[in-house]
Amino acid sequence: MAARGTLRSNDNGTLLEAARAGIGILGGGEWLMARDMAEGRLVRILPDWAFDVDSGIYLVRPSAQLVSARTAAFLAWMREQCRDHMPWCRD
């Protein structure tokens, strides 16, 4: 499927705002659009179609023997967010 149009961006926020404004369609992950779909701002137009990709959220930090308490707390929080709100997310 070839895309045509004048708006192209690699910024999810810009693309999401454009879709909300009715400027075009947006292909993206559930993590990006779930709230807008649940609240009726966006609707799924191709329910039987999905991207064939295996993507994820990656947290990157410097290699070290010890992880700071703040970093450990953030990692734990992110895992909780994934588990509770993103069923496709894995540790």
From TrEMBL:
GO terms, molecular function: DNA-binding transcription factor activity; sequence-specific DNA binding
Annotated InterPro entries: LysR-type_TF_proteobact-type (IPR058163), LysR_subst-bd (IPR005119)
A Pfam short name: LysR_substrate
Record GO biological process: DNA-templated transcription
Stated name of the protein: LysR substrate-binding domain-containing protein
Family membership: Belongs to the LysR transcriptional regulatory family.
Domain of life, per lineage: Bacteria
